[in-house]
Amino acid sequence: MATDQPTGILFDVDGTLVDTTYLHTVCWWEALRQTDQPVPMATVHRAIGMGADKLLDHLLGPERDRDADEKLRDAHDTLYGEYWERLTPLPRAADLLRACAERGLRVVLATSASEQEVGALRRALGADDVVDTITSSADAKQSKPAPDILVAALEQSGLAAERVVFVGDSVWDVAAAGKLNIPCVGLTCGGTSRGELAGAGAVAVYDDPAALLAELPDSPLARPR
């Protein structure tokens, strides 16, 4: 392998860099309630990180009547859109991205949010000056735990799977990275426990971007493969 091959860090955004996991939980919970398909919030929360199609399969079963799926997605999107102007970055998220860039690592936002949502997330994060590449849901045929969005991020950035690390907050992030043999660093700020992330295969787990930044020199992000 060439020693001058570029290295980079792929970041999930929802729940990893921007504090949205519980907003998505509440919005899906309400959308399900509106269609008379109630699911406990704790169960909904554990599915956040999947795309809408797989999330609904996970919550309602693959044999469900799919006629209401579009209504469910529209309800979620409408409810979630009410929060866009109030989205908040997680502690020191932008500083973490800048620190990675200062180390010569290319920063890639590997998100499967819609293009409109990506705009709201970028405004909340405020780190466009150091972001090399950003994906959206339009770039992936299948959502996590399928690795499609990571494949798209690699292709668009010109990075190789052998030279990157992925940072995410859900077991679905860890699973997607594992399919490409990409090490995944887990953050618990999305509400998934350290044990769950480590049990899913995360190579290291931190509380949030601030905690990862504080230990950056000794973290997997500082040890390009």
TrEMBL record:
Presence of the UniProt keyword Hydrolase in the record: yes
InterPro entries, sorted: HAD-like_hydrolase_sf (IPR050155), HAD-like_sf (IPR036412), HAD-SF_hydro_IA (IPR006439), HAD_sf (IPR023214), PGP-like_dom2 (IPR023198)
Keyword Transmembrane in record: no
Annotated Pfam families: Hydrolase
Keywords: Hydrolase
An example Gene Ontology molecular-function term: hydrolase activity
NCBIfam families in the cross-refs: HAD-SF-IA-v1, HAD-SF-IA-v3
Protein name, entry field: HAD family hydrolase
